[in-house]
Amino acid sequence: MLSLSRASFLQLAGAVLLSGAAMAQTGTRMHKRKIPSTGEELPVVGCGTWQTFDVGTGAAERAPLAEVLRILFEAGGSVIDSSPMYGRSEGVVGDLLAAAGSRDKAFVATKVWTTGRDAGIAQMERSFKLLRTDRIDLMQIHNLVDWQTHVPTLQAWKKEGRIRYLGITHYTESAHETLQSVLQRGGFDFVQVDYALDDRGVERRLLPFAAEHGIAVIVNQPFGGGGLLRKLSGRRLPDWAAEIDCTSWAQILLKFVLAPLAVTCVIPGTGKPEHMRDNVRAGFGPYPDAALLRRMIGDAGL
């Protein structure tokens, strides 16, 4: 757990959305934020597929996942994040999008997770087939694995239009320094990183760096790997939850990580329609200001 220093907090607060009428979302489509490298707007809440989309071919297994995606799109969301590491998830996503005819509604993100140039190319070609698409919106180097080898291939594919954006990921604070050093080399549109109310290391340098250098940020593990949400779910919602239009702890945790403008999108993973319906509400309404962020940290006992 990390406590914000005064300097870090003030730096972060300078890039926070202020709550109020100017930021209220009254329509049926969630907030969007710009991808710095192009200005394209991306909805702020997406869907992760780790474990949750790793299912078989049975209709009973897949029907809830089809509903998860329908709810995401209905709310104005688009980002679906997967990886070859996630078992059958890529294939399930591809099948569901094809069956619903909804590929054009999705911003499809996946990853390369292997070593060696040829192995990387083979793995990514398989991802295209599984996802049933001829263009992947965001290809990311998963957990920094052999990133030096994969970058030239991805840069070439981006020029050819096979991928639209290039990113790199990790899920632990111990990798943040390495991530920043890789991003300093240039050429990356996105970084995907861990961030939660009880995992705030990204606030120290990586979020300010991404904001300064025009790199979009996708947040994974916004519920602290699930443990934080389980810990808080038995508690009564604080009175201030109404100030940011939150009716659940999940929405509070998602709005916490969406408060900094440097964060482009958050991708809570779920295979349950009721959880997706809850999550997308974090894409609407006001976000915490600096004072409320301090209260959120204090009231959570972190």
From TrEMBL:
Keywords: Signal. This is Aldo/keto reductase. CDD domains: AKR_PA4992-like (cd19095). It comes from the Bacteria. SUPFAM superfamilies: NAD(P)-linked oxidoreductase. Residues 45-284 form the NADP-dependent oxidoreductase domain. InterPro entries: AKR2_Oxidoreductase (IPR053135), NAD(P)_OxRdtase_dom_sf (IPR036812), NADP_OxRdtase_dom (IPR023210). Residues 1-24 form the signal peptide. It holds the Pfam family Aldo_ket_red.
